Write the structure tokens for this entry.
Amino acid sequence: MTVELKAAKRSVTGKGVQALRAEGKIPAVVYGPKQEATPVEIGLRDFSKVLAEAGESTVVNLVVDGEGHNVLIHDVDHDPVTNAPRHADFYAIVKGQKVEVAIPLSFVGESAAIKGGANLVKALHEITIKGDPMNLPHGIDVDIS
């Protein structure tokens, strides 16, 4: 599954990004082993949809001024009050090179112990795996029944 997100190169930096956010856009940067760090701007609404759909372990086709880049959402900075994304980092992947990412765990089912009144303490919420970015799972279901 590949998701597409449109972006434009950004010349505004520093405190100038506040005006960008007021327009409903957020600043971001694209970088990678064979890609120089490039500041970009993306629509907040579009990015929120892509983040919910792709997470941080699915390849996103980031189209910057007509040129496509296969990227992973590497890091997202959120507003401490509204929890809205404020900045994003995109890691441009290199075909054939493995990457290390955190895959979220989703606990499904209900064990007999929980039915009997016990509590489930989740010590892990994600695991780190290394693999081909085009074949990474979006999440892992853990059946506890």
